[in-house]
Amino acid sequence: MIGLLKSEVLKIRSTQVWIWMLALAVALSTLFTIGASVDAVSDYRHGRDVDYYSLFTASTQVFFALMVLGVLGLTTEFRHKTITPTLLATPNRWQLLGGKAAAYGIFSIIYSIVCLVASFATAIIWLTATNVPLHFGDGVPGGVVKVFVTQVLFGIFGLGLGALIRNQAAAMVFSIVYLAVLNFLLAGIPWVRKFWMFEPGGAAQGFVSHGTITGLSDDTHLLNPTQSLGVLIFWCVLLLVLGGWLSLRRDIS
Amino acid sequence: MSSTEQPTHTANHAGTATGDGRIVIEHLTKVFGTQRAVDDLSFTVEPGSVTGFLGPNGAGKTTTLRMLLGLVAPTSGIATVNGVRYAQLRRPIQTVGAALEASSFHPAHTGLQHLRIYCAAAGLPSSRASEVLDLVGLSNAGKKKTKGYSMGMRQRLGLAATLLGDPKVLILDEPANGLDPEGIRWLRGFFRHLASEGRTVLVSSHQLAEVQAVADRAVILNQGRLVRAGTIEELSAGTSTAVVRGPDLRPLQQALASAGMQGTTETDGSLRVRADELTQIGHLAFANNVELHELSLEEFDLEQLFFTLTEGAHRGASFESPETAQYGAIQTQGGPR
């Protein structure tokens, strides 16, 4: 298993995709934090309470970059037909999926830590420069841990999605459409939005959010953080198992 | 494959084989939709032999090899190496080296990176990657990205990957595809090198002359079914052909038919007579006062056997006698169904 993990890490490191994705994730993380910092400064100057929790968890949305990286994990193997030598070296397909999940988990952890550091640095510099006091209470440490866990889980979620949809283009289009369109539609369509809490995007919101979420209708509810984490983990496991069961069991021809 | 086999040969028992490199295919069948790509195929590749796996396009060679390597699930039957399925091998890369296609590389990886990835997966030192690149003559291109590799270089890189674990069994699918004459010449030497090391090699190839030069055995497939398998000696037994040319060979044709010798008339007027030696034909020509411009013996040619078995093509009009008609039919139809 150690060999397999080394092999998978080497695969990721051997191309430039990971570094570009990291650069994108850091850039977005910084951008989201700047937006939240501007709001924080405005709130402070108008005498309103500064939402430090939202400020320091602003990089949550970067999870989509980790999801995309995860999607590439298996779809790249099928696209370039390297799945053949990969399976010759590791014929047990469940073992292979486990090795990939571990490797992408490790990269997701690294990505998440780097993004959080970038986010924190941006917020601290911005608030200090604008003479807004820094405050790390209001559940900020717990929120940061939740952001970290969410991002890592979405990396593995992406891997499962890639196992399920082997075609790289189709998997990428689905990921983007889901994150940019479907996720918001599901949160907005009457009756359907009652179930948004059970959908990965809704579960992520339920896990990370702190208090009332703005922009949602009255009948859109979120599960509590523990339940939301359970739903998120359920989706990751479901996609990995379904992907392993349906996709990896297929003939490699 | 101890004797020339017909499709109804005896199956071997995979469970009794040991870690000696024996490949056993038993009643292997693969159905894609309504098409039977491989149909009740059984044969054995003996340890330490080089076996040519031959058949026209679509004969089921690649599907068979993929089933053997656990990449394609058989509809029925079993394929084993060392008595176990590939997926159950404890150290697959150290047991079997397989090259199935010349394009299984990430274009952004260098040749060295590609090999190091599989070294890591197999628990081999990364220095092994450089060693095998050297073996296939690619050491100078190891740091070049595979997207810049020619087809010949890709084939060599694929072959290098097969050698990573120094396996006793090698399975190569069309390794000569896309190679230029220099590459084919290199491949011939590579085959000889593998054979000299006593490895079990199963190679599917269209380069029949190359296979014949190095193979001990051949398995010939057509439309998913085994049409002939055996050692090259067994396959060549009784297949030598005498070529006879002359201005008027009709008296000789009659004499040969009366003597029970089978043959065909070619479109250029020459005769091809199945014979292991020329004495009797020469005597009949002399006795019948037939002028000859050529009387030569054509030795066994795997390519000719291949085309005969897989296409059932007749060469010109037959003049065989009733006694030899059955023999001729077997040779051209590729064995019983």
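qc> The two ends of chain B are 19 Å apart (CA to CA).
qc> done
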